[in-house]
Specification:
alpha+beta; 4-stranded mixed sheet; 9 helices; about 280 residues; elongated; 4 strands; Glutaredoxin; single chain
Length: about 280
């Protein structure tokens, strides 16, 4: 009886094993199934913090001075962390010694930059954007003259559509500003009530009041000037730029460029190539 039970038990285990074999036999590499890659175990930095600490003793002053900027930054950051973690006299002193080198490197770069700008003034923007008061006043005068001349010369071919509505308090303020603009420039500004002309508002994708749209005679293209209240100076400036864009005088890349700045330091299309530098 005991022998029969043992045989039955062995048969049961054997059948279960074979059942598992046949169940798993359709899986694995031969069936285009790969085992999931085992992720490399990451060291626990909290339990095993890095033991190596930077030391100034390993470098000469000249070696630190000549370090690549990325390596220098890593080195200085490591010294800072070491000084914060263990603020001993030695660690804090080492950190500030490296900061002294960084300060002198920055000063050396600034000094050479001043020398290069003085020797090669074409690499600076002082001609286009002077920082002295007389020079800055002259620049502002040229900007004002160019804007007003452009708007004056194009007032017959361009106009502004002014979208507003009666219950818009912001529109009241914008209307007063536009009165000044039309008086100064002679431009036509057509007022459009979006409640009475929803179709026209939809055509120009106007959802905000006040909104100013610049249009050109004989041109289907248009350009928004502003959505919301803007100053008279902004209207003048944005209308000036919109006119130049629609006429093809500038591209969006040159949006901030004035005519008198062409060929200067703010002209993005100007390319400086030195023949000597291109020679092998």
């Amino acid at each position: 009886m005991r022998r029969s039970l043992m045989v039955a038990g062995l048969l049961s285990v054997s059948v279960s094993a074979y059942a598992g074999y046949y169940t798993d036999s359709a899986t694995g590499w031969w069936w285009y199934q790969r085992e999931p890659e085992k992720k490399a175990e990451q060291p626990d930095r909290k339990q095993n913090p890095p033991t190596t600490a930077p030391s100034l003793k390993e470098y000469t002053y000249e070696q630190i001075w000549e370090l690549h900027p990325d390596r220098f930054q890593e080195f200085a950051e490591a010294l800072k962390k070491q000084a914060v973690q263990k603020p001993s006299e030695e660690n804090v002193k080492a950190y500030f010694e490296v900061q002294e080198i960084a300060r002198k490197k920055a000063l050396a770069f600034a000094n050479v930059a001043q020398y290069v700008w003085q020797k090669f003034p074409e690499l600076t923007t002082k001609k286009d954007y002077p920082i002295t008061t007389p020079g800055n006043l002259a620049r502002i005068a040229r900007i004002t003259e160019e804007r007003q001349r452009t708007l004056r010369d194009n007032r017959e071919d361009f106009a502004l559509l002014y979208f507003q509505r009666p219950d818009c308090s912001y529109c009241d303020e914008q209307s007063r500003i536009l009165e000044w603009f039309t008086t100064e420039t002679g431009w036509t500004v057509k007022q459009v009530n979006i409640q009475e002309n929803p179709g026209l508002a939809a055509k120009f994708n106007v959802n905000i009041t006040p909104t100013l749209i610049l249009i050109q005679k004989g041109n289907q293209e248009y350009l928004p000037v502003a959505a919301g209240v803007i100053s008279a100076d902004e209207i003048e400036d944005k209308a000036y730029r919109a006119v130049r864009l629609l006429k093809g005088e500038i591209t969006p890349e040159e949006y901030s460029l004035y005519e008198f700045q062409k060929g200067g330091g703010f002209d993005v299309k100007k390319r400086r190539l030195r023949d000597k530098e291109l020679q092998p």
